[in-house]
Amino acid sequence: MPVDLHFERHGDGPPLLILHGLFGSSRNWQGIATRLADEFDVITVDLRNHGQSSQHPDMSYGAMVEDLERLRITLGLDAVVVLGHSMGGKAAMQWAVQHPAALARLVVVDIAPVSYQRTYAALIDSLLSLPLMTLRRRADAEELLQVRIPERPLRLFLLQNLRFEDGQARWRINLPFIRAALPHIMGAPHLPEDARYPWPTQFVLGQDSDTVQPAHHAVIHHHFPAARFDTIANAGHWPHADQPAAFLATVRGFLAD
Question: 0.85 cut: is pTM over it?
Answer without folding.
Answer: yes
